[in-house]
Amino acid sequence: MKCTTNINTQIKKRKKQLMTVFNKYIVRFLFCHTEFIEVSSKQKQHTLLFDKLRVTRMIFCALLIIPSFLLNAQNNPHLLPELKFVVYDSSDIRFYNDSSNYANFFNKLDTLIFEGKGKVNVMQIGGSHIQADIWSDQLRKNFQNFSPNLNGGRGFLFPYRLAHTNNPYYYKCTSTGDWTGFRNALMRHDTTWGVSGITASTQDSAVSLKFWFRGDDTPYYDFNSIKIFHDVDSTDYCIELISDSCSQIRINREIGYTEFIFDHYIDSFEFNIFRQDTILSSFNLYGISLDNNDPGLVYTSIGVNGASTKSYLRGKLFTQHLKAVNPDLVIFCIGINDAYDPNFCEQCYENNYDTLVSWIKSVNPNVEFLFVTNNDSYYKRRYPNKRVFKARDAMIRLANRHNAGLWDMFNVMGGLGSVDTWIKHGYAKRDKIHLTKNGYILMGNLMFSAIMKEYDKHLQNLIK
Q1: Could you give the dihedral angle defined by the CA atoms of residues 306, 309, 310 and 315, in that order, rounded to the nearest 10 degrees?
Q2: Domain limits of the chain?
Q3: How crowded is the C-beta side of 365, counted as CA atoms within 13 Å?
Q4: If one looks up domain 160-290 in CATH, what number appears?
Q5: Cα within 13 Å of Cα(309), Cβ side
Q6: Are 331 and 125 a contacting pair, CB within 8 Å?
Q7: Which helix (H) or strand (E) holds 42?
Q8: Pairing, β 171-175 against β 206-213
Q9: What sections of 33-95 are H helices per DSSP?
Q10: 83-152+295-463 is classed in which CATH architecture?
Q11: pLDDT tens digit sequence for 228-248
Q12: What is the tens place of the pLDDT at every residue in 54-90?
């Protein structure tokens, strides 16, 4: 296929503008970073590299990264093939009200890219589209690789295999003992949920849990902190690390996790979990966070098969656990399961989102939101699902009311019935609801292009 080509003209056109932005940051750097930070022997060796490469980082970002990535939808960051069934003109983020256009998020991104400081946190939340972590992982890789040293770690995740459901492809988890999985999407399930929307529970007296990244050509992350989210106020069970030695163990009762801190970086771990008395009780696992001390961007994906907006409102510990994620940008992709219901209530859907927004803002009042419309789909594989229009209308009102952006995946696909064309070209599955791996990767690249286009506008405003 013919690819969109020749970005050299646009790169030359932008160099002069970007040098103005660069000069502002280099002056700040010279005043604020006259000496390298002393690195203790307990820190990872590449921590020093972040300081030594700050000037190089700014030069590289200003002259190469930004002009090559921030182009229009046709000249997108990845020089994607020109697919005739993709409506590129619909791929921009739309703002329906006076908005800062993600100023809070982009300012933090500036500090990270140009000064090498801080953590930027993005969270994408949805149903099965997100649980598989192909779409979200493509966005994660794009964010963490579009400038040097932006990988801030893997952050919060769930070992889905413990709950007997599909796990993302790039990490593995094995366990002993008998575990029961509870999903917020299943009304017959009744338990306590946190931000993950899924809980793994055991009543065994002793179980083990082993976790590692697959490696090879799959995403890889190392970390020096493991947070285990569980019922910290219960003394029925104790967690014992057996795979490595840690320097400190801390219990955070406010958020609800036990943290194991290491004086070195690791990429796998193993725990034993013991019941401490003979009284029958349960150990509930709500999630795990793998963190490091490096500046960077952390991309958290929250997904549960079959989840709707109502599903996440069942999470009594949602906001409590969300404090550990502390997102700067939340990408909402919940809706395909809401609109699948023949009795879909547009106002209920909107109200549920209002509640989720208020929950998240209670954790971070400066958070930004991006609403993503449902993909085109069929009901029972026979009828184009026209309820997508009601869900889309609700999202437009939500974006307007909450000064948020909207990315119209439905129209990017081509509108009602377009999923048939995506199936024909191998970008959607024959269930007429889900995309294929290539389809999710394409969506991730298109969305990233749209976000970077807004970031380009932000940088241009710095010059004015």
Answers
A1: 90
A2: 83-152+295-463, 160-290
A3: 0
A4: 2.60.120.260
A5: 29
A6: yes
A7: none
A8: antiparallel
A9: 46-52, 54-60, 66-69
A10: 3-Layer(aba) Sandwich (3.40)
A11: 999 999 999 999 998 678 889
A12: 444 444 445 444 444 444 434 444 456 689 999 999 9
End-to-end alpha carbon distance in the chain: 39
Buried b (16+ CB within 10 A) or exposed e, 402-432: bebbbbbbbbbbbeeebbebbbeeebbeeeb
135: number of Cβ within 10 Å: 26
Residue 191 has pLDDT above 60, yes or no: yes
**Residue burial 347-360, b: 16+ Cβ < 10 Å; e: rest:** eebbebbeebbebb
Per the CB < 8 A criterion, the answer to whether 396 and 406 are in contact is: yes
Neighbours of 303 (CB within 10 A): 25
pLDDT at 101: 80
Mean pLDDT over each residue of the chain, to the nearest integer:
87
Place of tokens 């958070």: 367
Of 202, 191, 185, give the one whose Cα is nearest residue 316. 191
Rounded Cα gap, residues 61 and 452, in angstroms? 13
Topology agreement, domain 83-152+295-463 and domain 160-290? no
Determine contact, residues 184/315, Cβ cutoff 8 Å. yes
C-alpha distance from residue 347 to each of 338, 343, 376 (Å): 12, 12, 21
Residue 12 dihedral angles phi and psi, to the nearest 5°:
-65, -40
Specify the pairing of strand 119-126 against strand 198-202.
unpaired
Asked if residues 196 and 287 have their Cβ atoms less than 8 Å apart, the reply is: yes
Q: How many helices (H) and strands (E) does the chain have?
A: 14, 20
More confident position, 60 or 356: 356
- Mean pLDDT, range 350-366, rounded to an integer: 98
Q: At residue 112, does pLDDT exceed 80?
A: yes
How high is the pLDDT of residue 12?
43
* Average pLDDT of the segment spanning 406-424: 98
Look at residue 210 in the predicted model and tell me its pLDDT.
96
Which tokens belong to 230? 């569980």
- Give the DSSP letter string of 283-341: EEE-EEEEE-SS-EEEEEEEE-TT--HHHHTT-TBHHHHHHHH--SEEEEE--TTTTTS
Q: Which two tokens stand for residue 306?
A: 């079959």
Cβ–Cβ under 8 Å, residues 166 and 144: no
The alpha carbon torsion through 229, 233, 238, 244 (nearest 10 deg) reads: 40
Maximum Cα interatomic distance, the chain, rounded to a whole number of Å: 73
Beta bridge partners of 123: 300, 330
